[in-house]
Amino acid sequence: MTSMGILFVGAGVAGWIDAVIGGGGLILIPLIMAVLPSLAPAVALATNKVAAFSGTASATATLLKKVGANKKQAALYVPVALVCSGLGAYFASHINKEVMRPIVIVLLLFAGTFVALRPEFGQNQAKGTVVSPARKLGAIALVACIAMYDGIFGPGTGMFLIMGFTAILAQDFLSSAVLSKVVNSSTNFGALVVFIIGGHVLWKLAIALAVANIIGAQLGARTVIAGGAKLLRIALLTLVVVMSAYLTWQQFAA
């Protein structure tokens, strides 16, 4: 019961973090593996993915209702995200995580430095900006790459989507956050299908964690709506620092 209580609280916190900026897996996956050390890594990842999908989908529904999103854009990106995340999950066992980790650290530091030095970035919608065919193709390529990354490795998926959509589509962080939640729900689902087919999900634990994750995600979605683009900028910079430190520690501890 104590272990379940710890995991339930952890899943709630992870749901809040995922809804605000992404990165909840950095909390929940290590927590599952620490509390239940006998679980195979694939089972821990798959069980976390059930909770992550449930919470992200819940937050997405709330943000779509309160903020809205470009439905044409979402319809374009969702199939790409589903297919590419599924491919990523399928090939995950063949990719060396030790090689990916330093690449992600560099990308995180670049993103954080860019946002820190450009305080106006993502704070306002660029009025009159036409989303050209080239920008649309760029956004599709972005979604394909990040979705595959989510299936293979995962940390920071939501943040990378927000950064990419803001830069390519010239919109504010809040608009990008809503669109990223739609895409992130799809990437989670695509990877989850592969895990389910592989029989890796521990369903009783997954359902309990999904409930907690949904509660946290609903609180997180309301936090985003109340805080707007300024809150997302602070959350993004905080996540960059935390994730960079965590992944660097993992790299040298491995």
From TrEMBL:
Q: Which residues form the signal peptide?
A: none
**Membrane topology listed for this record:** Multi-pass membrane protein
Keyword vocabulary terms for this entry? Cell membrane, Membrane, Transmembrane, Transmembrane helix, Transport
Q: Name one GO cellular component term.
A: plasma membrane
Protein localization: Cell membrane
Tell me yes or no: is Membrane among this UniProt entry's keywords. Answer: yes
Checking Pfam families in the record gives: TauE
Q: Classify the source by domain of life.
A: Bacteria
Q: Which InterPro entries match?
A: TM_pro_TauE-like, TSUP
- Tell me where the transmembrane regions lie: 7-36, 42-64, 76-93, 99-117, 137-169, 189-219, 231-249
The family assignment reads: Belongs to the 4-toluene sulfonate uptake permease (TSUP) (TC 2.A.102) family.
PANTHER family recorded: MEMBRANE TRANSPORTER PROTEIN YFCA-RELATED, TRANSMEMBRANE PROTEIN YFCA
State the name under which the record lists this protein.
Probable membrane transporter protein
